Amino acid sequence: MTDFAAWSREVQSRIESALARVLPNSAIAPEKLHAAMRYATLGGGKRIRPMLAFAAGEAVGADPARVEYAACAVELVHVYSLTHDDLPCMDDDDLRRGKPTCHVQFDEATALLVGDALQSLAFEVLAEPGACVDKATQVDMLALLAKASGSRGMAGGQAVDLAATGKSLELAELEFMHIHKTGALIEAAVLLGAMAGGMPSDAQRQGLRHYAHCVGLAFQVMDDVLDSETDTATLGKTAGKDAAQGKATYLTLMSAKEARVYANELIENALTAIDHFGDAGANLAAIARFIVERRY
After folding, report:
1. Would you say residue 58 has pLDDT above 60?
2. Which CATH superfamily is domain 4-291 in?
3. Structure confidence at residue 19 (pLDDT)
């Protein structure tokens, strides 16, 4: 039986150290930009995406030292997206991970450049020689992260989200948005972690992809529930912001109780998808359960 709490702390510590190494030192010019990149990235967050990468790597027997590159790359893209999402031209938020958002702490222009630079750094990290056992798979990994980050993934999902503000969406429309905005990068984290050890088999990829699809939707369902039920201090970001801005959420379509039931159904489907990994998939299963049990 895996000790998930101990394992997650170990992964969080490992990814924090790895990110601190790959981020430029704030003493190097341009000092303000580098300081802001480190501010936005280090010292906060659940690190769910890196954990998913490491857990998927475990499931297929990938070397954790190689998975580390994928985990860093995905987290850098995630932080870039948060930094841009918080800008006044998007969600206009002033709190992230329990501290002032990057544009509040520095300024809007610097925050914009932080996102740009973190995105570039993600691909630089993933292109390092140690990121995969073979070059052909590594090229596929770079393409996967690019697609997950772009207009057919995370950025496209954010565009749909902004366009849907103040409008009513059907469940299928809402899930289309979240499959792109949140789910694409979660799927990338899972697949990149597995691909760090070489190209997984078709059966492994299919199981991991379905797991990630279900986990990504469940994560967003619970985010919407927690946004309505949990205070700002616990969340580390402004509670109730989605409702105040007229954003389409799961709670505009169902009650919080129904949403929790739906999230648990998604997690059960995710667990079924990774049954064939046996004990090697224990931490993937534990992350799935954490997603519906978390309080922040």
Report:
1. yes
2. Farnesyl Diphosphate Synthase (1.10.600.10)
3. 98
Q: What is the DSSP string of the chain?
A: ---HHHHHHHHHHHHHHHHHHHSPPTTSSSHHHHHHHHHHHSS-S--HHHHHHHHHHHHHT--HHHHHHHHHHHHHHHHHHHHHHTSTTTT--SEETTEE-HHHHS-HHHHHHHHHHHHHHHHHHHTSGGG-SSHHHHHHHHHHHHHHHSTTTHHHHHHHHHHHTTS---HHHHHHHHIIIIIHHHHHHHHHHHHTTSPPPHHHHHHHHHHHHHHHHHHHHHHHHHHHHS-HHHHTS-TTHHHHTT---GGGTS-HHHHHHHHHHHHHHHHHHTGGGGGGGHHHHHHHHHHHH---
* Stronger pLDDT, 38 or 239, i.e. the higher one: 38
Q: Take residue 241 and report the two structure tokens written for it.
A: 């912001």
Does residue 1 surpass a pLDDT of 80? no
Better-scored residue on pLDDT, 52 or 294 = 52
CA 148 vs. chain centroid, Å, equals 11
The answer to whether 5 and 48 are in contact (CB under 8 A) is no
How far are the Cα atoms of 74, 237, 276 from residue 129, in angstroms, in the given order? 17, 37, 31
Extract the tokens encoding 132.
């995969």
